[in-house]
Design a protein that fits this description.
It is a single chain. The protein has 561 residues and is α/β, with parallel strands linked by helices. It folds into three domains: 126 residues, no CATH class; 262 residues, no CATH class; 116 residues, no CATH class. It contains 23 helices and twelve strands. Strands 9-8-7-6-3-10-11-12 form an eight-stranded mixed β-sheet, sandwiched between helices. A two-stranded parallel sheet has the order 1-2. A two-stranded antiparallel sheet has the order 4-5. A hairpin with a 6-residue loop joins strand 4 and strand 5. Helix 6 crosses helix 8, helix 14 packs across helix 16 and helix 18 crosses helix 19. The protein starts with a helix and ends with a helix.
Length: 561
């Protein structure tokens, strides 16, 4: 029930073209001036909201985030009420909240308001049907029967057409990529990137490297591509009826009102396979910008073209290959320093895409382009996962960062674009994102309790998250020492957590201990104490004997007639 309520809250809070989000509706009905979906949580409250919140709760608040959390508690109470009504669950409400009389209409089933009608007729039925569909269609697939097709996407970004799940989903019409909504978000996100760099460095951004994946492009309609276009000073052109992309056009400097950015693009293997027409479009855009008669100060790409360097800035892995070449090296430990990781990334990414069918091996060109890069960017389009959920994040962004450092001799600035809310794109440092994920997930007791419900797989996910954190540190040096220390304290020195891992997946505990020791041995964790290292080694020694005993018992059981 708790998971259903939380997921319903995430989906119902997303505003659509015709309907406000649930928390927005509650805020309006209570008289607040804040927008809980669009406003930054760190924003100062207006006096009217401070006084109103004190009237409702007797609490003095100063930041938007305080009221947003309270509104979400109200929303969860309402959602739980309706979930129990639908499921005929007569148990006591988990959240014991006295609902303000202005909100009693949200508990109405017979004549619900617009948002509750949306909740009861669109969101909850589709969510409840999803688990049934998943089981039924999984069995049908095993029997070789047809599974009904349906669209893909992220329901937490308002794509309710994805629900119920359990369908044979398709992606997108590639001729409509990028979409007009993707352009709107990508343009705003690009301006934030440029603004952040100007604010922190006192000069305009001239060179940037970005990685773009096929899966995210299918979900968001090409927001990353539109970031690239906007940075360069390009705009897609759609036809009049079908709204398919037919060309791109140059945004004049007088309209752009800032210098253009020379963007080096690292594409994934799936993007190469799924979106050949986008590769052609980006290459056409590079030629348009490169051939403009504009000064170097406002068009660094044109300066390169005037010097005869007219090659594409699109790079990827070799035709038929995927990834970025770092996972196996880091997992095996067969590297000595960050330069070796950078060389592996460059070697894997040295294929220059002049077009979808014109692919040239060009390591020197890649190194020359990366040597000028000031910012390395990666974007995330939803919050259903994070940067420590997959090896791809450190392989692509971490690999780019190490490669830029190797070729230029300087550390590039690492930016992370959070485009999970269409109305509120955010740009911040990658180091801040790592900090947030470690605090909100890896060290969060609620997340740890959730992993403990999944036994072997839960312990594996803990180990994998630490591997990805370590790999980010190996490629970027952006993970602070406190992360390793806190994980040691909360995972290995907490008896309940350690016992869970030992009982369910002792191999995961061994991997965690070995990874922490490796971080210390490689001077990534620089302030580890002798006591901490001794404690980790003790855990490792104990678990090795336990695994040996476990394996021996398993063999003996197999031999017993």
């Amino acid at each position: 029930m708790d998971k259903l309520i939380e997921l319903t809250l995430l989906i119902s809070n997303v505003p659509t073209g015709t309907t406000q989000g649930l928390s927005q509706c509650i805020a309006d009905d209570l008289g607040f001036t804040i927008d809980p979906w669009k406003d930054e949580e760190s924003k100062d409250l207006k006096p009217i909201d401070i006084n109103l919140f004190r009237e409702y709760t007797s609490i003095s608040a100063r930041k938007v985030g305080t009221i947003v959390n309270w509104l979400n508690e109200m929303a969860m109470f309402i959602i739980e009420f309706h979930c129990k009504k639908i499921l005929n669950n007569n148990s006591t409400q988990t959240n014991q909240i006295v609902l303000n009389r202005k909100l009693l209409k949200y508990l109405e089933n017979e004549k619900p308001n617009i948002i509750i009608n949306h909740l009861l007729n669109n969101i909850l039925p589709r969510l409840l049907k999803s688990s049934i569909n998943e089981k039924t269609n999984f069995l049908k697939a095993l029997e070789g029967k047809r599974i009904t097709s349906g669209p893909s996407g992220a329901p937490t970004r308002g794509k309710l057409e994805v629900l119920p799940t359990g369908k044979n989903f398709f992606s997108v019409d590639i001729r409509a990529i990028p979409t007009e909504t993707a352009w709107d978000l990508g343009k705003r996100s690009a301006e934030k990137i440029i603004g952040l760099y100007l604010q922190e460095n006192g000069e305009h951004l001239s060179h940037l490297a970005i990685s773009i994946w096929g899966t995210s492009t299918m979900r968001n309609g090409g927001e990353d591509i539109c970031q690239l276009f906007a940075l360069m000073g390009l705009r897609p052109i759609w036809d009049g009826t079908l709204r398919r992309v037919v060309d791109i056009e140059v945004i004049p400097i007088s309209v752009l009102n800032r210098p253009r950015v020379d963007v080096t693009l690292r594409i994934s293997g799936l993007f190469r396979d799924a979106f050949p027409q986008i590769i052609e479009l980006i290459r056409r855009g590079q030629n348009l910008i490169g051939n403009l008669n504009e000064p170097t100060a406002v068009n660094p790409l044109a300066e390169s073209y005037r010097k005869g360097k007219t090659e594409s800035r699109i790079y990827g892995s070799a035709p038929g290959s995927y990834g970025a070449g770092l996972q196996e090296i880091i997992n095996s430990g067969s590297w000595e320093n960050q330069t070796e990781l950078a060389n592996a990334f460059i070697e894997w990414s040295k294929w220059r895409y002049e077009g979808s069918n014109n692919i040239v091996k060009d390591r020197k060109g890649l190194e020359d382009n990366l040597s000028k890069v000031k910012v390395v960017l990666h974007s995330q389009d939803n919050r259903e996962h994070d940067i420590l959920d997959s090896d791809d994040y450190y392989q692509f962004q971490g690999g780019l960062i190490s490669a830029v450092k190797k070729t230029s001799g300087n550390n590039p600035q690492a930016y992370f674009a959070d485009n999970s809310r269409y109305q509120r794109p955010r740009i911040h440092k990658l180091s801040k994102e790592i900090d947030k994920v470690v605090r909100s997930r890896l060290l969060n007791p609620k997340w740890l309790d959730g992993m403990k419900k999944h036994g072997y797989k839960g312990a594996f996910e803990m180990s994998a998250s630490l591997d990805y954190l370590f790999s980010f540190d190996a490629t970027t040096n952006l993970v602070p020492d406190w992360c390793y220390k806190s994980i040691t304290n909360n995972w290995l020195e907490d008896e309940n957590t350690k016992k869970f891992i030992i009982d369910n997946n002792p191999w995961a505990l061994r991997d965690i201990a070995e990874r922490l020791l490796e971080a210390s041995n490689r001077d990534l964790w620089t302030n580890s104490t002798l006591e901490e290292i001794k404690s980790i080694r003790t855990v490792l020694s104990d678990i090795d004997s336990k695994i040996e005993k476990f394996s021996s018992n398993k063999i003996n059981n197999k031999l017993t007639p």
